[in-house]
Amino acid sequence: MSSKIPAAISFTGVANFLGVLGVIGSLIFVGLELRQTQRIAPADMEQRRSLLTAK
What we know:
Number of helices: 1
Strand content: under 5%
Number of strands: 0
Shape: rod-shaped
Radius of gyration: 25 Å
Oligomer: single chain
Distance between the termini: 87 Å
């Protein structure tokens, strides 16, 4: 008898798993973008304020 392990993984299961990974990755990416935007916003506002008072 052969001792091979049956690979009974369905295509639908693999596609669902990859979809979940994609959604999680997208959420992480959006969270990092939001954090970066919140860090940049105060510096941008300060720069605009200094340009307006310098004129």
